[in-house]
Write a structure and sequence with these properties.
By secondary structure, this protein is mostly beta strands. It is built from 2 helices and 27 strands.
């Protein structure tokens, strides 16, 4: 009995360790890490950015020295801000975490370039934006969402608009799902990067220049009520004589159900 109890306590302790800590950002403007949270968050830790707190990411200058920031779940509450403070910075979300921008919360590039938000592991992830996600100036800043999620799904949700330069698949057999009511706005492409069996399910609204470099067996599904605006390039105007991008023959396109729309903006 005593051994069983000790074993159970050991398992609970291991689960708690894996879960990590929860850090709430201090009021005012502070850099990610000890200044903002009193510690440096790791891959199992959860982040809360409340009203009155602004957290800066990026503390150096000059390529190719990237700043890598790590956490699991992150919630930017109403009045909270997470912003980049230098070029070449990368925010990585691990272990199936959820990135949530509440109404009134802000994630922004702050005018910096070559930034990325990466969902790292081959696990299901959710990026929900009900607030402001302003991660591109729409003039070629190179700010990218990277997704892995092999045999899993990255879901984009919420009533706000998720703005980046580009979205790139990094693993095979991954699925991107834009949920009903969500809007993804990219100056550049949804870039499959030749990854086989990539799937894009659109239930919401997408703006992008193209669906590019599809690997064999890749599929795009425009679901009922969905809108795809393709050939769109933000402040650069309309373009793209090849909206399905390079290697388009590897991509199967499905207009599933009724009442879905594809607008070609390259005319």
């Amino acid at each position: 009995m005593k051994k069983a109890l000790l074993y159970s306590l050991f398992i609970i302790l291991m689960v708690d360790i894996a879960k990590g800590a929860t850090y709430t950002a201090a009021a005012g403007t502070n850099s990610w890490g000890v200044a903002a949270f009193g510690a440096t968050p790791g891959v199992n830790d959860d982040i809360i950015v409340p009203s009155g707190a602004t957290v800066n990411i990026g503390i150096h200058t000059g390529a190719p020295l990237f700043t890598f920031i790590r956490c699991r779940n992150i919630t930017i509450q109403n009045g909270g801000i997470v912003q980049f403070a230098s070029d070449y910075a990368n925010l990585k979300v691990y272990n199936g975490g959820t990135f949530y921008i509440a109404t009134g919360g802000i994630l922004r590039s702050n005018g910096f370039s070559f930034l990325s938000l990466e969902f790292v592991d081959n696990i299901d992830y959710t990026f929900k934006c009900d607030g402001i996600c302003d991660m591109s100036n729409m003039t070629g800043d190179g700010n990218i969402i990277f997704m892995n999620s092999s045999f899993k799904t990255l879901s984009l949700e919420g009533s706000g608009t998720i703005i980046f330069e580009q979205l790139t698949f990094r693993q095979t057999d991954a699925t991107l799902c834009v949920r009903a009511g969500a809007t993804l706005k990219l100056r550049n492409a949804i870039y499959f990067d030749n990854k086989v069996n990539s799937v894009l399910n659109n239930h919401g609204t997408i703006f992008c220049s193209s669906l590019g470099f599809a690997g064999a067996g890749s599929e795009f599904h425009n679901k009922s009520g969905a809108v795809l605006n393709i050939g769109w390039t933000g402040s650069s105007g309309f373009m793209s004589a090849a909206p399905l991008g390079n290697q388009w023959s590897a991509l199967s396109v499905f207009a599933d159900d009724s009442n879905n729309l594809v607008n070609y903006c390259g005319m």
